[in-house]
Amino acid sequence: MGNRFIKFLSVVFFILFLDLLTKEIAEKTLEGKVITVIPNLFNLVLVWNKGMAFGMLGNAPEIVRFLALILATLIIILITIVYAYKNKDKLPALQFYALAMITGGALGNLYDRIFLGKVRDFLDFHISNYHWPAFNIADSSITVGVIIFVIYEIFFKNKHTTV
Description:
Elements: H1 3-30, E1 34-38, E2 42-49, H2 62-86, H3 93-116, E3 119-127, E4 130-131, H4 137-155
Helix pairs in contact: 1-3, 2-3, 3-4
């Protein structure tokens, strides 16, 4: 399997663990509460998201939403794992671990969808009363992973080193 791919899987499972742990803590401590961390900027609040990122598909029929989200997530996970494995010796370190971040985050939200039917979100950033949709560690990991991967692809594609 290779030492580098084991590092990939370690990052995946670390993110999965961190995501599920923080969601469990949020579910146990935030039900019916809003904790202001930074006034007019950041709260902790438990939100159950039945849709995709930022609530997309939240109003679709339940079976359509469930199947679409599960299938889409499984496809993303499969693609990232296969791509990372096949390119484990060629991908630059930042892109390689960005794929691990995407995979770990996708697995965290997939767990919630399969076992809870919805995703636990709890990070609420806002300016005064204008709120960005609540999100979680998995969403953050996916977003940062995609940004790193794309920026590296655009600006550094032919100047990389592997680790």
